[in-house]
Amino acid sequence: MFGRGRQDEEASVVRLLAAQLRRDIAFGILAPDTRLKIDDLRARYGGSAHSFREALTLLAGEGIVESHAQRGFRVASATGADLEDIQRMRARIETLGLEWSLAHADASWEAELVATRHTLGRAVEAVRHEPASEALAWDEAVSRFHATLVANCRSPRLIAFQERLALESRRFRLAALIEGCIDHDAEKATRAQIVEAVLARDTEAALACLTRLFQPAAGAGTESSQ
Length: 226
Hints:
Elements lengths: L1 H25 L8 E2 L1 H8 L3 H14 L2 E4 L3 E4 L4 H24 L3 H23 L1 H20 L5 H23 L5 H16 L3 H11 L13
Antiparallel strand pairs: 1-3, 2-3
Helix pairs in contact: 1-3, 4-7, 4-9, 5-6, 5-8, 6-7, 8-9
């Protein structure tokens, strides 16, 4: 019993450290390609060397940290090519997931999708006024909306892959938010069209609208925030 309690405590510490690192990577505090030395991280965040190795391994599984046998860990790169690749993969995976979700559509999934769009709408209004303090809540709402689109697809592997790609794109979303490169009104309108198409069981229209969310913003010189 005592052994299990200690394991749960260590797991909680690992999750906490991973969350702190994930946040600082997302906001660019830990810049792309930065070497993540265990001793430096312990001095900055606290925690044991073992806990940090576990946390970094967890983040490596999410694709935002890279692990090298001889060189340890570093923050994954974040180039324009990286973003383009992530967005291209997300467009394919999420449209496939949405297509499969629509094939099994039911009232429960529709209600969840409507609810997540409503939550995201409120998060957008909040982040317009307080970008710094509301950024993480907005980011979570964006992620939840996209996760819900594929949640009814009946493929755990597709859902897991979608989640990983969404995590990899997170720092690009937050950077775009901070730099003022997001057209919230355009994205809000497109998300509304997706939900309307889902409720109408118009698969072709729903997939076309979702694909549009992953296309470069016109004149912005950047990818969509998704």
